[in-house]
Protein: Ribosome-recycling factor
Amino acid sequence: MSHDELSIDLDAIQRRMDGALHALRTEFGSLRTGRASASILEPIHVDAYGQMTPINQLGTVNVPEPRMVVINVWDKAMVQKVERAIRDSGIGINPVVDGPLIRLPIPELNEERRAQLSKVAAHYAETARVAIRNVRRDGMDQIKKAKAAGMAEDDQKMWSEEVQDLTDKAIANVDRTLELKQQEIMQV
Structure:
């Protein structure tokens, strides 16, 4: 067995961890604070035609005024599903259905709403941490397989430390990103 087969692809592990952080930042972008933005809908997917579909693939999303998002759903059969997905998403906005249009009045951010958004942000961050830990576990599994294939004990220890180091840095990034988002949410 060649040495290359006994090495671990740290770049792939790093890319996957970065992917989890990128996904978190996208989700945080959707947590708009008091101003209407089409990005608040980005993390919401609708069970449409047998697959989970982003809302912007089911209708036109517009922001006609600072505190209103409007979705013009193309297929009338999907209006109720889109409305339900928004209600169930935890973004705390009550959709108003008017034929094919769904209006989302963006509420003023009161203390309760800020606390709610902060909890949603924490939930997104925990999901990112879980994704990062799953990548770590995959990396450690690769190391175990390499050990079974003849990797030296010292190499195994070194690779394990490298993977753990990437994990610690990625989790610290998630925590820092969450802290900044929560500060933004709490700014009055």
